[in-house]
TrEMBL record:
<keyword id="KW-0235">DNA replication</keyword>
<dbReference type="GO" id="GO:0005524">
    <property type="term" value="F:ATP binding"/>
</dbReference>
<dbReference type="GO" id="GO:0006302">
    <property type="term" value="P:double-strand break repair"/>
</dbReference>
<dbReference type="GO" id="GO:0043138">
    <property type="term" value="F:3'-5' DNA helicase activity"/>
</dbReference>
<keyword id="KW-0238">DNA-binding</keyword>
<dbReference type="GO" id="GO:0016887">
    <property type="term" value="F:ATP hydrolysis activity"/>
</dbReference>
<feature type="domain" description="Helicase ATP-binding">
    <location>
        <begin position="210"/>
        <end position="376"/>
    </location>
</feature>
<comment type="subunit">
    <text>Component of the replication restart primosome.</text>
</comment>
<feature type="binding site">
    <location>
        <position position="449"/>
    </location>
    <ligand>
        <name>Zn(2+) 2</name>
    </ligand>
</feature>
<dbReference type="Pfam" id="PF18074">
    <property type="entry name" value="PriA_C"/>
</dbReference>
<dbReference type="GO" id="GO:1990077">
    <property type="term" value="C:primosome complex"/>
</dbReference>
<feature type="binding site">
    <location>
        <position position="440"/>
    </location>
    <ligand>
        <name>Zn(2+) 1</name>
    </ligand>
</feature>
<protein>
    <recommendedName>
        <fullName>Replication restart protein PriA</fullName>
        <ecNumber>5.6.2.4</ecNumber>
    </recommendedName>
</protein>
<dbReference type="InterPro" id="IPR040498">
    <property type="entry name" value="PriA_CRR"/>
</dbReference>
<dbReference type="Pfam" id="PF18319">
    <property type="entry name" value="Zn_ribbon_PriA"/>
</dbReference>
<dbReference type="GO" id="GO:0006269">
    <property type="term" value="P:DNA replication, synthesis of primer"/>
</dbReference>
<feature type="binding site">
    <location>
        <position position="480"/>
    </location>
    <ligand>
        <name>Zn(2+) 1</name>
    </ligand>
</feature>
Length: 728
């Protein structure tokens, strides 16, 4: 016989904090809650949003009288059983407390805390006892009998909100709850569907069939840029909307994809709901609710959209699935592409990965038949993807201090004279990546990171791209104090811009990088200007490589094709191939054939060879072979442990202590500690341990057991667990 009343009056609530398990709370009389409900509960002196968690298998008996009660139920949204399973799965896989994963899901209005209901005021029959001119104006403004928010009422009457409050207190006005603003209009699946080409039709039919089957099935849409991958998956989106289910479209750089939203609107009549960091808090709150109620049927968002509480998710799309922006590198370390596949599985929905240059992981999955490949071999417009022509910098490079080879310069002039646009691609922000003292050889470093300071001439300062530290460009060497001895080394986009301006004084130039003052709005405006042909030469970083559609772009010049190679990063070849292929693909998307040039010191490098030959399979065959032979992902699994602290010795010692207590296993090798690839960031010294296992091994479980038996990190030491790290 139990000592306590039935368990129904006690529930576990998971809170968005870094503890291992849920807390118990008492359910007040008259309240009904179920797992997945979001509730407001007290924790210490604070009120917090949490999620009612499924009961533990063997709950400990507790006396409800000793528990704090749930404060209230947050009626706005709840999490589905699939979502709860997803939170658990990610927590397990990434070796993170589930509360930290829940925090990703509840982040929508963390700042607002608990969102309030929208209320308004309207006139009652009561007349005011005290009459003032201000009060009369409010009454007059509301005489039409319509409801207004308090702020609107005050603004219309030209009085302060306290006047409105006073009238509410006197009963002259009454407060009413307003219906929620609609989160999104419903997209129309048949608004304007294009006639598909046969290859597109075949691919679309298979996706539509998968949507109808309401089962987990992974696909890869593999097609060159401009082959209609988007049009094709739009058919699956349309079918999902017809079925009354929801769609999540993940994109790597959503803040910049205005063009995508417009295009979606042309196809479906309305834009999808957007979800990313640039969306305001209020709007986020509305989308969060709408997604939970099912009112929002399509969300296009950055990786964080993966954690939205969809009521009935029926399709997941991961556009540009190879993009490294999908990897979250702080807090909970996760790869949004991989987690999208997991979420789709838990929701029993198809998932579609989309790319012209799939990641090695995805390519291997497609080759092994784990993902069905839908191939779109040709561009819709009939043009060819431009071949990349190498310019061997050893033989035909520019004079010292310049960066554009004479052949490229000549081609640019020809292109512009013919009315086309040229894009120079250089993945280096600022003016010069390094500042050096001519007298003593000193190189200027960030005081708190292991990175060089980058000169930004437009802003007249040196900046750290790691931590944001900035300082005016000094007049003398900080080391030997020789005046005017500092020289910029190497090119950044600002310096390249200077060179183009000298070469082509009449050309209209635009530099595009994330340094562009004016933020996303300005960037969108500049992209539009380029699209409209108001720019002749674009000088840009990888910002311009992604997804934009520049109809007039006829020539692409890659200034330094070798930038990303040879840092000992095992993904360097893959990244370089993808990026350069993508940049070249910006050219000639419409009627005109495009051309692309690669300036390189290593024309014989396999990546350059594959790009120049236009032989994608050659690249994948080779790279997959290298990975397999060297026992690297996806043929092995890695987990990185990064130990950091302000004291280098303490951090290193802790890393060694962790290594020493790693559980013995025939399946796992622990490598390190060694300095992490970024050895110093924001004043924190970083050491890295790598655990490696075979593919099929449960490395998360191993790391969990390891950490359970490991010494605690004390002081400001921190241990981050990065499963499936990007570098290994
Ligand atoms: P991808 O996503 O593969 O780069 P898109 O879907 O963006 O290709 O298509 C490239 C261009 O061709 C777009 O302007 C698109 O509207 C157009 N397009 C592709 N397929 C069709 C089609 N079947 N009918 C009309 N236009 C199409
Ligand atoms: Zn720094």
């Amino acid at each position: 016989m139990s000592l306590f009343p039935p368990r129904e009056s006690v529930v576990d609530v998971l809170l968005p904090v870094a503890v291992g398990s849920a807390y118990s709370y008492r359910v007040p009389e008259g309240m009904e809650v179920a797992p997945g409900d979001i509730v407001v509960v007290p924790l210490g002196p604070r009120m917090m949003l949490g999620c009612v968690w499924p009961p533990a298998e063997n709950p400990k008996p507790v006396d409800p009288a000793k528990l704090k009660p749930i404060h209230r139920k947050y009626d706005v949204a709840s999490l589905s059983p699939a979502m709860l399973a997803f939170i658990r799965w990610i927590a397990d896989y990434t070796v993170t407390p589930p509360g930290m994963v829940l925090r990703l899901a509840l982040r929508h209005d963390e700042s607002a805390g608990i969102s309030r209901e929208r209320t308004g005021v309207r006139l009652t029959d009561q007349r005011p006892q005290r009459r003032t001119a201000a009060r009369e104006r409010v009454i007059e403004a509301l005489a039409d009998g319509f409801v207004r928010s308090k702020t609107d009422a005050a603004r219309e009457a030209g009085v302060s909100p306290s006047v409105v409050d006073g009238l509410v207190d006197d009963g002259v006005l009454e407060t009413v709850v307003l219906p929620p603003e609609p989160a999104a209009e419903r997209p129309d699946p048949d608004h304007s569907a294009p006639e598909l080409l046969p290859a597109q039709r075949d691919a679309a039919d298979r996706l539509v069939e998968a949507v109808k089957a309401r089962a987990f099935r992974p696909y890869l849409i593999d097609g060159v840029t401009g082959s209609g991958k988007t049009e094709t998956y739009f058919e699956a989106v349309a079918e999902t909307i017809r079925q009354g289910r929801q769609v999540l479209i993940l994109m790597p750089e959503i803040a910049l994809t205005q063009a995508f939203l417009d295009r979606f609107a042309r196809r479906f009549g309305v834009k999808p709901a957007e979800w990313h960091s640039a969306v305001g808090t209020k709007r986020r709150g509305r989308v969060f609710k709408g997604v939970s109620s099912g009112e929002v049927s399509v969300v296009a968002g950055a990786r964080s959209a993966l954690f939205l509480p969809f009521r009935d998710l029926g399709l997941v799309i991961v556009d540009e699935e190879h993009d490294s922006a999908y990897k979250q590198e702080d807090g909970v370390h996760y790869h949004a592409r991989d987690m999208a596949v997991v979420r789709a599985r838990l929701e029993e929905a198809p998932v579609v990965l989309v790319s012209a240059t799939p990641s090695i992981e995805t390519e291997v999955n497609a080759r092994r038949g784990r993902y069905s490949r839908l191939h779109l071999p040709e561009r819709f417009a009939g043009t060819k993807v431009p071949r990349l022509e190498p310019i061997d910098l050893r033989k035909e490079g520019p004079p010292r201090g310049q960066w554009i080879a004479p052949r490229l310069a000549a081609e640019m002039e020809r292109t512009i004279e013919a009315g086309g646009q040229a894009l120079l691609f250089l993945n280096r922000r600022g003016y010069a990546p390094l500042t050096l003292c001519r007298a003593c050889g000193h190189r200027i470093r960030c005081p708190s990171c292991s990175s060089w300071l980058v000169e930004h001439r437009f802003r007249r300062r040196l900046e750290c791209h790691q931590c944001g530290y900035a300082t005016p460009v000094p007049n003398e060497c900080p080391n030997c104090h020789e005046p005017n001895s500092l020289i910029p080394c190497g090119p950044g986009v600002e310096r390249l811009h200077e060179e183009v301006a000298k070469l082509m004084p009449n050309a209209r130039l635009q530099v595009l990088s994330s340094d562009l003052a004016g933020g996303v709005e300005r960037l969108r405006a500049e992209l539009k200007a380029i699209e409209d042909g108001a720019v002749d030469v674009i000088v840009g970083t990888q910002l311009v490589a992604k997804g934009h559609n520049f109809p007039g772009l006829a020539l692409v010049g890659v200034i330094d094709a070798d930038v990303g190679l040879g840092h000992g990063d095992p993904r360097a070849a893959e990244r370089t191939f993808q990026l350069l292929h993508q940049v070249a693909g910006r050219a000639g998307r419409h009627e005109k054939e495009g051309r692309a040039f690669l300036q390189t010191y290593m024309p014989e490098h396999p990546v350059m060879q594959a790009l120049v030959a236009g032989d994608r399979d050659a690249f994948y065959d080779r790279e997959i072979g290298v990975r397999e032979e060297a026992h690297l992902p996806p043929f092995a699994r890695f987990c990185a442990l990064i130990v950091s602290g302000t004291d280098a010795h303490a951090a290193q010692a802790h890393a060694r202590a962790l290594a020493a207590c790693s559980p013995l296993s025939n399946e796992v090798r622990v490598l390190g500690p060694a300095e992490a690839p970024l050895a110093l960031v924001r004043g924190r010294h970083r050491y890295r341990l790598l655990a490696r296992s075979d593919r099929g091994f449960d490395l998360s479980n191993y790391v969990r057991a390891w950490m359970a038996g490991a010494p605690r990190a004390t002081g400001n030491l921190r241990v981050e667990i990065d499963i499936d790290p990007q570098s290994f």
